[in-house]
Structures are given as C-alpha cells and as structure tokens.
Amino acid sequence: MENTHNGPLNNKILKPKDVANILGCSLNRAYRIIRQKDFPYKKIGKRYFISHDELEKWINSYYSQSPVKKQ
Question: Could you give the residue ranges of the DSSP H alpha helices within the chain?
Fold first, then answer.
C-alpha cells in the first residue's frame, strides 16, 4: 500500500498483515502484539491501522527496554 500524499499524511499506514511481515511472525501473533496496551494502533470498526513511524518507535523502545545478554 503506497501513500503518495505530501505533508503530514506522508506516513505509511500499515495493516496487521504488514506488521506480521515486518516482525517476522504469524498474523495471529501480530494481532496479539497489536492488542497490547503499549502498542500504537487505531481501530476503526473492526479494522486495525498502524502508523509505520509509530511502529518503528515502538520497536525501538521495545528493544531499548529489553535486557541484552552478553556472550
């Protein structure tokens, strides 16, 4: 889904299947992740919409909170 708008609407809007592809998980797992309290999404009717920019911020904050094991 390509967004050709200029200005503030230039942010790509994702659907749960896009989130699953980005995160490398199943669609069911993507829905479980989307429903988490801290996940940035908008729900219109029964559909979920996710801002690509907000997803990137969420991923970055998730990894900055997770302890990394040193080998």
Answer: 16-23, 27-34, 52-65
Pairing of strands 42-44, 13-14: unpaired
Q: Give the residue among 61, 7, 54, 16 at the shortest CA–CA distance from 35.
A: 16
What does the pLDDT read at residue 67?
A: 63
In a domain, 30, yes or no: yes
Sign of CA dihedral 50, 35, 16, 22: positive
- Report yes or no on 22 lying in a domain: yes
Band (pLDDT 50/70/90 cuts) for residue 3 is very low
> Which CATH number characterizes residue 61's domain?
1.10.10
Determine contact, residues 42/34, Cβ cutoff 8 Å: no
β-partners of residue 48 are 43
